[in-house]
What we know:
It contains 12 helices and no strands. The chain has 232 residues and is an all-alpha fold. Helix 4 (77-87) runs antiparallel to helix 5. The radius of gyration is 19 Å and the shape is globular. The termini are far apart.
Amino acid sequence: MRKIDALTKKKIAAIGILIVIIAAIAAVAVTFCMPMLKLADEPEELRVYIESMGLWGIAFFIFVSAVQVVAAVIPGGPLEIAAGYCFGPILGAIVSDIGMTIGSVIVFLLVRHFGMAFIEIFFSKEKISSIRFLKTNGQSRLVIFLLFLIPGTPKDVLAYGVGLTDLSLAFWIFTVSVGRLPSILLSTLSGDALGDKRYGHFIIVIIIIAALAATGAALYRRWTKKQQMSSG
């Protein structure tokens, strides 16, 4: 009988954890998302519904924000805008930030335990090779923090890559909670403006977000290309 190597075992375990996560998402979807979908065409009633849920509404957004980070393929921007729409810019940003921080910690711990076996479930080898520049030295802390502070960088891939370094969990929590906050706040500001029907403000904030993201993405591509050339 063919023996299963260590990497395959880790992949099987990682897939098992992923199945549990999907089951949890499905349970939440049935409980919370279905009523929301019925109100999707009536934004004002959707906001009232979320407010009527009280702390459960906040808990729901925290949970979904955490899942968004773990699942990686789910875009976080629309969820942040929805949080701003439902809770206002400040509370919406706090709720989103808490959820994304929890999700980032879960990813960090899973990658620390399973290594590449877990990362390869979500990302191709090409994507993984693009984050090989993450080094385990003193300068890496500043680099990683700046990459999360600058809009437009691929934070989903980076969140998985950091688990392969020797960065401390405490600094990782600081990085994701503080580094993400400015861009999250911009998104929740746009959601709040949309909720109050200040469409001019909404468009302005969206343009600012798009411009910052495009600039950040260009800087990231230029910097990573430079890093790959210097290490090649």
